[in-house]
Design goal:
By secondary structure, the chain is an alpha/beta fold. The strands form four sheets. A five-stranded parallel β-sheet has the order 7-6-5-8-9, with helices on both faces. It has a five-stranded mixed β-sheet with strand order 10-11-14-13-12, sandwiched between helices. It is built from twelve helices and 14 strands. Strand 13, helix 12 and strand 14 form a beta-alpha-beta unit.
Protein backbone atom coordinates (compact mmCIF):
# COMPACT_ATOMS: atom_id res chain seq x y z
CA UNK A 1 0.00 0.00 0.00
CA UNK A 2 1.37 3.42 -1.01
CA UNK A 3 2.27 5.86 1.75
CA UNK A 4 1.41 9.55 1.80
CA UNK A 5 4.29 11.86 0.92
CA UNK A 6 4.50 15.59 1.57
CA UNK A 7 7.14 18.27 1.09
CA UNK A 8 7.09 21.16 3.55
CA UNK A 9 8.86 24.49 3.66
CA UNK A 10 11.71 24.71 6.20
CA UNK A 11 10.70 28.34 6.71
CA UNK A 12 7.24 27.84 8.18
CA UNK A 13 6.18 24.21 7.71
CA UNK A 14 3.74 25.00 4.89
CA UNK A 15 2.90 21.94 2.76
CA UNK A 16 4.10 22.72 -0.79
CA UNK A 17 3.52 19.32 -2.40
CA UNK A 18 1.56 16.23 -1.42
CA UNK A 19 1.10 12.88 -3.05
CA UNK A 20 2.00 9.23 -2.48
CA UNK A 21 5.25 7.30 -2.43
CA UNK A 22 5.77 5.12 -5.49
CA UNK A 23 5.88 1.45 -4.57
CA UNK A 24 6.63 -1.60 -6.67
CA UNK A 25 3.45 -1.41 -8.84
CA UNK A 26 4.01 2.29 -9.61
CA UNK A 27 7.69 1.75 -10.44
CA UNK A 28 6.81 -1.17 -12.73
CA UNK A 29 4.17 0.88 -14.57
CA UNK A 30 6.52 3.85 -14.88
CA UNK A 31 9.33 1.77 -16.37
CA UNK A 32 7.03 0.03 -18.84
CA UNK A 33 5.63 3.37 -20.02
CA UNK A 34 9.10 4.84 -20.38
CA UNK A 35 10.32 1.82 -22.35
CA UNK A 36 7.38 2.16 -24.74
CA UNK A 37 7.90 5.92 -25.15
CA UNK A 38 11.64 5.67 -25.67
CA UNK A 39 11.34 4.06 -29.11
CA UNK A 40 9.31 6.92 -30.55
CA UNK A 41 11.44 9.56 -28.84
CA UNK A 42 14.75 8.20 -30.16
CA UNK A 43 13.32 8.10 -33.68
CA UNK A 44 12.71 11.87 -33.64
CA UNK A 45 15.33 13.98 -35.35
CA UNK A 46 17.89 15.81 -33.27
CA UNK A 47 16.34 19.03 -34.56
CA UNK A 48 12.98 18.08 -33.06
CA UNK A 49 14.51 17.14 -29.73
CA UNK A 50 16.62 20.30 -29.65
CA UNK A 51 13.56 22.44 -30.36
CA UNK A 52 11.75 21.01 -27.32
CA UNK A 53 14.82 21.51 -25.12
CA UNK A 54 15.01 25.15 -26.20
CA UNK A 55 11.30 25.63 -25.47
CA UNK A 56 11.97 24.25 -21.98
CA UNK A 57 14.70 26.87 -21.61
CA UNK A 58 12.20 29.52 -22.69
CA UNK A 59 9.81 28.30 -19.98
CA UNK A 60 12.53 28.74 -17.37
CA UNK A 61 13.32 32.22 -18.65
CA UNK A 62 9.70 33.36 -18.77
CA UNK A 63 8.90 32.03 -15.29
CA UNK A 64 12.25 32.70 -13.66
CA UNK A 65 10.86 34.58 -10.66
CA UNK A 66 8.12 31.99 -10.13
CA UNK A 67 10.45 29.01 -9.91
CA UNK A 68 13.13 30.94 -8.03
CA UNK A 69 10.60 31.83 -5.35
CA UNK A 70 9.47 28.20 -5.16
CA UNK A 71 13.07 27.05 -4.66
CA UNK A 72 13.44 29.49 -1.76
CA UNK A 73 10.16 28.38 -0.25
CA UNK A 74 10.86 24.66 -0.50
CA UNK A 75 14.58 24.31 0.30
CA UNK A 76 15.25 27.58 2.13
CA UNK A 77 17.68 29.18 -0.32
CA UNK A 78 18.15 32.92 -0.08
CA UNK A 79 16.63 34.83 -3.00
CA UNK A 80 19.93 35.62 -4.74
CA UNK A 81 21.05 32.00 -4.38
CA UNK A 82 17.81 30.59 -5.78
CA UNK A 83 17.87 33.02 -8.70
CA UNK A 84 21.47 32.02 -9.41
CA UNK A 85 20.38 28.40 -9.58
CA UNK A 86 17.68 29.23 -12.13
CA UNK A 87 20.22 31.19 -14.19
CA UNK A 88 22.53 28.16 -14.17
CA UNK A 89 19.64 25.91 -15.24
CA UNK A 90 18.86 28.24 -18.16
CA UNK A 91 22.51 28.34 -19.22
CA UNK A 92 22.64 24.54 -19.17
CA UNK A 93 20.25 24.40 -22.16
CA UNK A 94 22.57 25.88 -24.79
CA UNK A 95 25.63 24.41 -23.07
CA UNK A 96 24.17 20.91 -23.43
CA UNK A 97 23.12 21.46 -27.04
CA UNK A 98 26.62 22.62 -27.95
CA UNK A 99 28.23 19.76 -26.02
CA UNK A 100 26.16 17.20 -27.91
CA UNK A 101 27.11 18.78 -31.23
CA UNK A 102 30.79 18.72 -30.32
CA UNK A 103 30.99 15.28 -28.74
CA UNK A 104 28.31 13.14 -30.34
CA UNK A 105 28.07 14.22 -33.97
CA UNK A 106 28.55 11.50 -36.58
CA UNK A 107 32.24 11.31 -37.48
CA UNK A 108 33.76 10.09 -40.75
CA UNK A 109 37.25 8.57 -40.40
CA UNK A 110 39.50 7.72 -43.31
CA UNK A 111 42.57 5.55 -42.89
CA UNK A 112 45.07 4.22 -45.41
CA UNK A 113 45.68 0.48 -45.50
CA UNK A 114 49.26 -0.76 -46.26
CA UNK A 115 47.86 -2.17 -49.50
CA UNK A 116 47.03 1.34 -50.61
CA UNK A 117 43.27 1.00 -50.13
CA UNK A 118 41.52 3.86 -48.29
CA UNK A 119 39.28 2.57 -45.51
CA UNK A 120 36.31 4.65 -44.43
CA UNK A 121 34.71 4.28 -41.03
CA UNK A 122 31.79 6.16 -39.52
CA UNK A 123 31.19 6.57 -35.79
CA UNK A 124 27.54 6.93 -34.80
CA UNK A 125 26.02 7.49 -31.39
CA UNK A 126 22.76 6.14 -30.07
CA UNK A 127 20.83 6.48 -26.79
CA UNK A 128 21.48 3.98 -24.03
CA UNK A 129 17.80 3.57 -23.09
CA UNK A 130 16.07 4.63 -19.88
CA UNK A 131 18.02 7.00 -17.65
CA UNK A 132 17.13 6.99 -13.96
CA UNK A 133 18.03 10.33 -12.40
CA UNK A 134 18.14 10.63 -8.61
CA UNK A 135 18.13 14.32 -7.75
CA UNK A 136 19.28 16.23 -4.65
CA UNK A 137 17.47 18.84 -2.54
CA UNK A 138 20.21 21.48 -2.52
CA UNK A 139 20.04 22.28 -6.26
CA UNK A 140 16.64 20.77 -7.07
CA UNK A 141 16.35 22.43 -10.49
CA UNK A 142 19.89 22.88 -11.80
CA UNK A 143 21.59 19.59 -10.93
CA UNK A 144 18.94 17.11 -12.15
CA UNK A 145 18.25 19.45 -15.07
CA UNK A 146 21.90 19.18 -16.07
CA UNK A 147 21.41 15.42 -16.42
CA UNK A 148 17.87 15.39 -17.84
CA UNK A 149 18.67 17.77 -20.73
CA UNK A 150 21.62 15.76 -22.19
CA UNK A 151 19.74 12.49 -21.69
CA UNK A 152 16.71 13.77 -23.61
CA UNK A 153 18.84 15.34 -26.34
CA UNK A 154 20.50 11.97 -26.91
CA UNK A 155 17.11 10.28 -27.36
CA UNK A 156 16.76 8.60 -23.97
CA UNK A 157 13.61 8.36 -21.89
CA UNK A 158 14.04 9.66 -18.33
CA UNK A 159 12.61 8.52 -15.01
CA UNK A 160 13.22 11.25 -12.45
CA UNK A 161 13.16 10.49 -8.73
CA UNK A 162 13.88 13.78 -6.99
CA UNK A 163 14.67 14.28 -3.35
CA UNK A 164 11.50 13.75 -1.35
CA UNK A 165 12.29 17.11 0.25
CA UNK A 166 12.08 18.99 -3.05
CA UNK A 167 9.02 17.51 -4.72
CA UNK A 168 7.34 20.85 -5.49
CA UNK A 169 10.30 22.10 -7.53
CA UNK A 170 10.58 18.72 -9.27
CA UNK A 171 6.88 18.79 -10.18
CA UNK A 172 7.26 22.34 -11.49
CA UNK A 173 10.20 21.29 -13.67
CA UNK A 174 8.45 18.24 -15.11
CA UNK A 175 5.34 20.32 -15.86
CA UNK A 176 7.56 22.88 -17.62
CA UNK A 177 8.88 20.11 -19.86
CA UNK A 178 5.32 19.09 -20.70
CA UNK A 179 4.41 22.70 -21.50
CA UNK A 180 7.44 22.75 -23.80
CA UNK A 181 5.93 19.87 -25.78
CA UNK A 182 7.77 16.85 -24.38
CA UNK A 183 5.63 13.69 -24.55
CA UNK A 184 4.61 12.80 -20.99
CA UNK A 185 5.87 9.24 -20.92
CA UNK A 186 9.34 10.31 -22.09
CA UNK A 187 9.94 12.08 -18.75
CA UNK A 188 8.20 10.70 -15.68
CA UNK A 189 8.24 11.82 -12.08
CA UNK A 190 8.72 9.08 -9.49
CA UNK A 191 7.97 10.30 -5.94
CA UNK A 192 9.59 8.61 -2.97
CA UNK A 193 12.62 8.20 -0.77
CA UNK A 194 15.43 5.62 -0.63
CA UNK A 195 13.19 2.56 -0.97
CA UNK A 196 11.63 3.91 -4.17
CA UNK A 197 15.11 4.54 -5.56
CA UNK A 198 16.15 0.96 -4.75
CA UNK A 199 13.11 -0.43 -6.56
CA UNK A 200 13.79 1.76 -9.60
CA UNK A 201 17.49 0.82 -9.78
CA UNK A 202 16.56 -2.86 -9.77
CA UNK A 203 14.21 -2.42 -12.76
CA UNK A 204 15.62 -4.37 -15.73
CA UNK A 205 14.65 -1.56 -18.12
CA UNK A 206 17.10 0.89 -16.53
CA UNK A 207 20.20 1.49 -18.65
CA UNK A 208 21.79 4.39 -16.74
CA UNK A 209 21.69 5.69 -13.18
CA UNK A 210 22.71 9.21 -12.15
CA UNK A 211 22.92 10.20 -8.49
CA UNK A 212 23.75 13.51 -6.86
CA UNK A 213 23.93 12.82 -3.13
CA UNK A 214 25.97 11.66 -0.18
CA UNK A 215 28.79 9.13 -0.11
CA UNK A 216 26.73 6.57 1.80
CA UNK A 217 23.99 6.59 -0.85
CA UNK A 218 26.56 6.35 -3.65
CA UNK A 219 28.28 3.36 -2.05
CA UNK A 220 24.92 1.60 -1.65
CA UNK A 221 23.97 2.13 -5.31
CA UNK A 222 27.39 0.96 -6.46
CA UNK A 223 26.91 -2.26 -4.50
CA UNK A 224 23.34 -2.65 -5.74
CA UNK A 225 24.48 -2.54 -9.38
CA UNK A 226 27.24 -5.11 -8.86
CA UNK A 227 26.84 -7.71 -11.58
CA UNK A 228 25.20 -5.26 -14.01
CA UNK A 229 28.20 -3.67 -15.77
CA UNK A 230 26.00 -2.79 -18.75
CA UNK A 231 24.29 -0.08 -16.65
CA UNK A 232 26.01 3.29 -16.97
CA UNK A 233 26.56 4.69 -13.46
CA UNK A 234 27.48 8.29 -12.63
CA UNK A 235 27.85 9.32 -8.99
CA UNK A 236 28.32 12.93 -7.92
CA UNK A 237 28.89 12.65 -4.18
CA UNK A 238 29.71 14.77 -1.17
CA UNK A 239 33.03 14.90 0.62
CA UNK A 240 35.21 16.66 3.16
CA UNK A 241 36.85 19.37 1.09
CA UNK A 242 39.97 21.23 2.25
CA UNK A 243 40.80 24.81 1.32
CA UNK A 244 44.45 25.85 1.76
CA UNK A 245 45.48 29.41 2.68
CA UNK A 246 49.06 30.59 2.21
CA UNK A 247 50.64 32.81 4.85
CA UNK A 248 51.11 35.70 2.38
CA UNK A 249 47.37 36.24 1.99
CA UNK A 250 45.87 39.28 3.71
CA UNK A 251 43.80 38.12 6.73
CA UNK A 252 40.64 39.93 5.64
CA UNK A 253 40.86 38.54 2.11
CA UNK A 254 41.46 35.04 3.47
CA UNK A 255 38.50 35.41 5.84
CA UNK A 256 36.15 36.50 3.05
CA UNK A 257 37.14 33.68 0.70
CA UNK A 258 37.15 30.89 3.29
CA UNK A 259 33.93 32.12 4.91
CA UNK A 260 32.10 32.23 1.59
CA UNK A 261 33.37 28.80 0.58
CA UNK A 262 32.32 27.24 3.89
CA UNK A 263 28.99 28.94 4.51
CA UNK A 264 27.42 29.79 1.14
CA UNK A 265 23.99 28.14 0.81
CA UNK A 266 24.20 27.50 4.56
CA UNK A 267 27.01 25.03 3.81
CA UNK A 268 24.68 22.87 1.72
CA UNK A 269 26.86 22.50 -1.36
CA UNK A 270 29.15 19.55 -2.10
CA UNK A 271 31.79 22.12 -3.10
CA UNK A 272 31.73 23.90 0.28
CA UNK A 273 34.99 23.88 2.23
CA UNK A 274 34.74 21.66 5.33
CA UNK A 275 38.36 22.10 6.42
CA UNK A 276 40.54 25.22 6.18
CA UNK A 277 44.28 24.55 6.34
CA UNK A 278 46.67 27.35 7.30
CA UNK A 279 50.48 27.33 7.24
CA UNK A 280 51.58 27.39 10.89
CA UNK A 281 52.87 30.92 11.52
CA UNK A 282 51.96 34.21 13.16
CA UNK A 283 50.12 35.09 9.95
CA UNK A 284 47.97 31.97 10.27
CA UNK A 285 46.62 33.01 13.66
CA UNK A 286 45.73 36.45 12.29
CA UNK A 287 43.92 34.82 9.36
CA UNK A 288 41.99 32.49 11.67
CA UNK A 289 41.06 35.34 14.00
CA UNK A 290 39.76 37.34 11.03
CA UNK A 291 37.82 34.29 9.78
CA UNK A 292 36.12 33.74 13.14
CA UNK A 293 35.24 37.44 13.34
CA UNK A 294 33.85 37.37 9.80
CA UNK A 295 31.76 34.26 10.47
CA UNK A 296 30.45 35.69 13.74
CA UNK A 297 29.20 38.77 11.88
CA UNK A 298 27.20 36.78 9.32
CA UNK A 299 23.50 37.48 9.64
CA UNK A 300 21.24 34.41 9.63
CA UNK A 301 17.64 34.69 8.57
CA UNK A 302 14.81 33.39 6.44
CA UNK A 303 14.55 34.10 2.72
CA UNK A 304 12.70 37.34 1.91
CA UNK A 305 13.27 38.75 5.41
CA UNK A 306 14.63 42.23 6.00
CA UNK A 307 17.42 43.11 6.41
CA UNK A 308 18.60 40.62 3.82
CA UNK A 309 20.32 37.67 5.59
CA UNK A 310 23.62 36.15 4.57
CA UNK A 311 22.79 32.66 5.80
CA UNK A 312 19.49 30.89 5.25
CA UNK A 313 17.94 27.83 6.90
CA UNK A 314 18.94 24.24 6.36
CA UNK A 315 16.58 21.93 4.51
CA UNK A 316 15.00 20.66 7.75
CA UNK A 317 15.19 20.58 11.52
CA UNK A 318 16.64 17.06 11.23
CA UNK A 319 19.45 18.39 9.03
CA UNK A 320 20.21 21.14 11.53
CA UNK A 321 20.34 18.56 14.33
CA UNK A 322 22.76 16.47 12.25
CA UNK A 323 25.15 19.41 11.88
CA UNK A 324 25.03 20.10 15.61
CA UNK A 325 25.78 16.42 16.28
CA UNK A 326 28.76 16.58 13.91
CA UNK A 327 29.98 19.63 15.85
CA UNK A 328 29.72 17.74 19.16
CA UNK A 329 31.53 14.76 17.65
CA UNK A 330 34.40 16.97 16.48
CA UNK A 331 34.69 18.52 19.92
CA UNK A 332 34.66 15.02 21.37
CA UNK A 333 37.61 14.13 19.13
CA UNK A 334 39.54 16.98 20.70
CA UNK A 335 38.76 19.96 18.44
CA UNK A 336 38.72 23.35 20.17
CA UNK A 337 35.49 25.36 19.74
CA UNK A 338 36.14 28.77 18.17
CA UNK A 339 32.56 29.67 17.24
CA UNK A 340 29.41 27.87 18.38
CA UNK A 341 26.38 28.02 16.11
CA UNK A 342 23.33 29.83 17.44
CA UNK A 343 19.95 28.19 16.89
CA UNK A 344 17.08 30.48 15.90
CA UNK A 345 14.21 30.66 18.35
CA UNK A 346 11.71 31.17 15.51
CA UNK A 347 12.90 28.45 13.08
CA UNK A 348 14.52 25.18 14.19
CA UNK A 349 16.16 24.63 10.78
CA UNK A 350 17.99 27.98 10.98
CA UNK A 351 21.42 27.79 12.62
CA UNK A 352 24.45 30.07 12.51
CA UNK A 353 27.96 29.12 11.40
CA UNK A 354 30.28 27.10 13.65
CA UNK A 355 34.08 26.76 13.62
CA UNK A 356 36.36 24.36 15.51
CA UNK A 357 40.16 24.14 15.57
CA UNK A 358 41.77 20.74 14.95
CA UNK A 359 45.38 21.92 15.32
CA UNK A 360 47.40 19.42 17.38
CA UNK A 361 44.80 16.64 17.11
CA UNK A 362 46.26 13.09 17.37
CA UNK A 363 46.73 11.29 14.05
CA UNK A 364 43.94 8.78 14.67
CA UNK A 365 41.50 11.59 15.48
CA UNK A 366 42.53 13.45 12.31
CA UNK A 367 41.88 10.34 10.23
CA UNK A 368 38.43 9.94 11.76
CA UNK A 369 37.68 13.63 11.23
CA UNK A 370 38.72 13.45 7.56
CA UNK A 371 36.32 10.55 6.98
CA UNK A 372 33.34 12.47 8.35
CA UNK A 373 30.72 13.99 6.06
CA UNK A 374 28.36 16.74 7.15
CA UNK A 375 26.17 19.12 5.19
CA UNK A 376 25.83 22.51 6.80
CA UNK A 377 27.62 25.62 8.13
CA UNK A 378 30.38 23.87 10.09
CA UNK A 379 34.09 24.45 9.41
CA UNK A 380 37.25 22.86 10.82
CA UNK A 381 40.41 24.99 10.84
CA UNK A 382 43.87 23.51 11.27
CA UNK A 383 47.40 24.92 11.31
CA UNK A 384 49.82 22.63 9.50
Amino acid sequence: MSQALISVSPMDGEVLWQGVTAGEPEVRKCMESAATAQGAWRSKSIEERTSIVRRFGAELTARRTEVSTLISREVGKLAWDADGEVAAAIAKVEMSIQAREQRAADVQIEASHPSGITIQRKIRYQPVGIALILGPFNFPLHLPGGQIIPALLAGNAVVFKPSEQAMAVAQWMVDAWYRAGLPRDVLQLLPGAAQTAKLAIDAPEVSAVFLTGGRTAGDAIHRQLAGRPEVLLALELGGNNPIVTMDSVDPEIAANIVSFSAFVSAGQRCTCARRALFLKSAAAQNQIDALVSQARSLRSGLPFSSPVPQLGPLISETAALGVRQAYEHLVGLGCKPLLTSAVSQSCNSLIGPAIVDATGLPADAVREMNEMEWFGPLLVVQQV
